[in-house]
């Protein structure tokens, strides 16, 4: 069982290979279609991190609907400094995704609760990135498998000032 003083391991920096990017919003600028790119992790990364740091039997998640919104609560059991067992819970709500709405909402709620514990919180402090979109069948798309390191220094649109 993890000791209270070691709970800070949950706030470790998210590895580059676990970071994913998606389009936040798009806009036109001087005849170009641009997108603000958002960094995120998937729910499996969060589950693996909780298992790795806390141990499989020392955390649990449960979901509940409150006023029409889906919330996830993550509860952690740990060993306090005085030798007693401590319990901490963090909870947040999710929003539906564009694909598999209910599953996306549950995943989002789970990841948002995990951020309150420290997992993935560092992603909120990353630089803001923009990507130039390509138009395909009349719809804008970011470059395939877009990542900031692929475009560093390549375009003035890469890093948002």
What does this structure look like?
Strand 3 (59-66) and strand 4 form a beta hairpin. The protein is built from 3 helices and 8 strands; from the N terminus they run E-E-H-E-E-E-H-E-E-E-H. By secondary structure, it is an alpha+beta fold. It has helices spanning 43-54, 101-117, 148-151; strands at 20-29, 32-40, 59-66, 69-79, 85-93, 129-132, 134-136, 139-141. The radius of gyration is 19 Å and the shape is elongated. The strands form 3 sheets. Strands 1-2-6 form a 3-stranded antiparallel beta sheet, with no helix packed on it. The chain has a 3-stranded antiparallel beta sheet with strand order 3-4-5. It starts with 19 loop residues before the first strand and ends in a 10-residue tail after the last helix. Helices cover 20% and strands 35% of the residues.
Low-confidence runs of at least 5 consecutive residues = 151-161
Mean pLDDT reading: 88
> What oligomeric state is this?
single chain
Largest sheet: 3 strands, antiparallel
**What is the C-alpha radius of gyration, as a whole number of Å?**
19 Å
Gross morphology: elongated
């Amino acid at each position: 069982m993890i000791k209270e003083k070691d709970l800070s391991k949950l706030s470790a920096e998210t590895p580059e290979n676990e970071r994913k990017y998606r389009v936040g919003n798009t806009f036109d600028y001087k005849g170009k279609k641009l997108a603000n790119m958002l960094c995120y992790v998937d729910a499996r990364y969060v589950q693996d991190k909780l298992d790795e740091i806390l141990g499989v039997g020392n955390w649990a998640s449960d979901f509940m609907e409150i006023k029409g919104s889906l919330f996830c609560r993550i509860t952690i059991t740990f060993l306090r400094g005085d030798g007693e067992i401590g319990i901490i819970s963090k909870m947040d709500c999710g929003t539906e995704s564009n694909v598999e709405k209910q599953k996306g909402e549950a995943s989002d709620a789970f990841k948002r609760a995990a951020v309150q514990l420290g997992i993935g919180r560092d992603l909120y402090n990353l630089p803001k990135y923009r990507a130039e979109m390509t138009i395909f069948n009349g719809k804008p798309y970011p470059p395939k498998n877009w990542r900031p390191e692929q475009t560093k220094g390549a375009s003035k649109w890469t890093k948002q000032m």
